[in-house]
Design goal:
Oligomer: single chain
Distance between the termini: 29 Å
Number of strands: 2
Strand order of the largest sheet: 1-2
Order of helices and strands: HHHHHEHHHHE
Length: about 160
């Protein structure tokens, strides 16, 4: 049991190191992704973005605030960032369970810190989830909570 726990901890630590090297690693592909990397990652990591779900006006306001704080990009880049964020992190966007960081699992799906860490560690050790039933089998995660949020998950 101890060996399994330490293995999960080690896998989580390895993920954290790789994520720190490339903040865009966990972001979905799509038009505007490179602009997000250029404009947004100078000041913060992607967890700030991934845990939010805003409509176009909300993302426009958020980006305006970032520009006021020093974010830089051309008009075309800012437009691409807005479109990307609305497409992938809009009001109705699902959580990509095979790349979601702890912050997103907590903020959007309501998992506790321990549950979110268990999901990320399980994923690191076992690979991608196929469906919500896989997530419900993660030790330390409340299966009824997973089932209640299954419509907000994508695989």
């Amino acid at each position: 049991m101890r060996a399994k726990f330490f293995g999960l901890c080690a896998a989580t630590a390895v993920l954290a190191v790789f994520a720190a090297d490339d903040p865009m690693q966990s972001m979905p592909d799509g038009p505007g992704r490179d602009a997000v990397g250029k404009v947004c990652t100078q000041c913060h990591g992607m967890d700030n973005i991934r845990k939010m779900r805003l409509d176009k006006d909300g993302w426009s306001d958020e980006i305006s605030q970032m520009i006021d704080r020093g974010a830089e990009g051309s008009d075309d880049e800012i437009s691409a960032v807005t479109d990307y964020l609305v497409a992938h992190f809009g009001k109705d966007s699902k959580v990509l369970m095979n790349s979601a960081p702890i912050a997103e699992l907590k903020a959007v799906l309501g998992f506790s810190t321990d549950e979110a860490k268990a999901i990320v560690a399980w994923r690191a050790q076992n690979g991608d989830f196929r469906d919500w039933q896989d997530v419900s089998k993660v030790p330390g995660v409340d299966a009824s909570k997973v089932e209640a949020k299954k419509d907000l998950m994508a695989f």
